[in-house]
Amino acid sequence: MAKSNLVIVESPAKAKTIGKYLGNTYQVLASMGHVRDLPKSKMGVDLENNDFEPHYQPIKGKEETIAELKDAADHSEKVYLATDPDREGEAISWHLKELLELPESKTSRVTFNEITKKVVTESIAAPREIDQNLVDAQQARRILDRIVGYELSPLLWKKIRRGLSAGRVQSVATRLVAEREEEIRAFVPQEYWTLEVILNRIAPNQGSFRTQFYGREKKMELTSKEQVDEVLAAIAEAPFVVSNIKRQDKNRSPAPPFITSTLQQEASRKLNMSPRRTMSIAQQLYEGVDIEGEGTVGLITYMRTDSLRLSDEAVAAARSFAGARYGQEYLPAAPRQFKTKAGAQDAHEAIRPSNVALTPESIKKDLTAEQFRLYKLIWSRFLASQMAAAVYDSLGIEVTSAGYVFKASRSEVKFPGFLAVYEEGRDDDGEEVQTRLPNLQEGESLTRGETKPEQKFTQPPTRYTEATLIRALEEKGIGRPSTYAPTITTIMNREYVVKDGKYLHTTPLGEVVTGLMKDKFHDIVDYDFTADMEGRLDKVESGEENWKKVLQDFYQDFHQELLQAEKDLDGTRIKVPDEVSDEICDLCGRQMVVKSGRFGRFLACPGFPECTFTKPLVIEMPGKCPKCGSRLLKKTSRNGYTYYGCERNGDKLGRACDFMTWDVPVKETCPECGWTMFKKSGRGFKKPFCINASCPAFVPEEKRGGYRKKKTEEAKVEGQAVPEEAKDEGKSGSKKSAAKKTTGKKTTEKKTAPKKTTVKKTTTKKAAKAVEEEKQTEENHE
Asked: In 75, 99, 650, 686, which residue has its Cα 20 to 30 A from 678's Cα atom?
């Protein structure tokens, strides 16, 4: 009997899907990600001889997997290395070949842009050799990150704080966030005014509409009340005449299909998914999901790509599907082509469904909630990209009075086109709601109604969200599709950057480290230098540059900067200032500061050791406490449940309030009694309700809908079950528990620890992990 063929992939899910397509003559095994890497305990790169030869070793804990793969390879006629189709996947295949000692004669490389039977069988039939240029590009990136991490981290330990580490791309990302904070602090608001004038048609009941002050022939900015008063005085007795009406159809084209960065941005905006979670779910969809009647199916194409290219077959399928479902008028005359940006690797297609006929609704029962939402996003965006443009009926009106121009506009969908399927999300707050405009005629006279001048001030730049930070990195050419998610995760895990709601901001630690890097290692955090390094790595991939030459050029300057920095900072210790909060210590009245411990960030009294009071970080909610009028805070119980309580829960100064609830406070107040209203937690619209039992608008618990009891001891607060541990939340201020938290000792189950009540749970890195840059900036496929 002939030996079977062996196919090696990274994950069991991928192995299961591919194994179904290939049949019994193929054995498909998973390497569980990387099988060898640079050692954790030392540099692992030859810097002394300046040849940058890496010294790889098998990853600890992978011995059984490696032995299984080795045995299977020895008993196979042919070995197909089918790891992911990118640099890291190519490097994993190369490491497998080297570690398993596979001979050239029996080893082939295959890749799958999508895991479907057609693509898998075609790829197996047309194997290739391992692309050494891709491998070298990955090795160069890995060694660059190892050099920066291992040589910079000890300096940070000595000069700032033990346990710190630095990374090449991550340092640039932190700088972006830090400089946005500097812009916000330096921002000086500028006064400006808007002037709204309501105009009426002369004939009764013929309609009125709102106009906004524009200027004269050119747009004018109103910067003071005096200017506004001047305009108001001029138009007080002057007639208003319609001077121009412009009506036209405006076309809006669909967004292109997703690439990695745009998928992460849109999933953040629309689904509230972190980039890392987005890529994890996308990986599941790519590798295969069990679909009833279909078996295991790879639902999307490869999700790490910067290309907008689509196969002719996929485009034809999308046009056929859209035409059948929506009608031929929803198709453009010719298939849409999207231009990939300059500098993109263009190695794969854009992200799209493998089979557009598998609609999200038809397979919803086979997917998890997250898989369904992300698949629907990808499916909808792809289908919309091949549909006709939306057509808007755009109407613009200009009205003149005393030489001043006032404008009004309205835009309505005339033909939905691609909007029948999908509309791209926005990072800003959206456009103002428009009102209908009457059917006016040029030269028509109008009467002035109410005037509404309003003073406003310019706003500082908005902090980055995960979505906008990814966009900024992409625009500056920093990183590649596989690096965005792990970069953001890394800088948050290191607590250089924290997430407040959906916005990112630097911590004092992040600002100190960024300041040191800008001062002593300018190239590392320089945007152009980092983008240029990405370009050189791309040239290694294309065979235009030697990877060791890239490393030599980098290390020569970097090493000199490191020696100079150690000399300049000799005997210097840089202090990280405390992050001062708005919270006041319940025991001594000092302004509390943010500290980091074993279980993450928490608030502590700066009077330690005289005062040892601590409490969790707080997120202030809209509305006021219905019992005492104090702030309402979002909290987390010891069992991990989110609840909402008065800021005076557990207060030690005689002002304690015991209000707590599972329901979410909203900014609306009850029109009857003025109390803050609440809504049930969960996704989607939930109708607010009043909890004031003496109010005519009071809604009893059984009529509020959507309530799900938690499995905890019950305590009645406004008729709801609230966890007993939540009621003990304020006890974290006791001296005994605070002392234990600050010293890092274990606490008993009865005591409250920051581990369970901090807003963001993180884990302090061990010293060894802080020094080594073991994790590539590329997403690890394990």
From this structure: 650
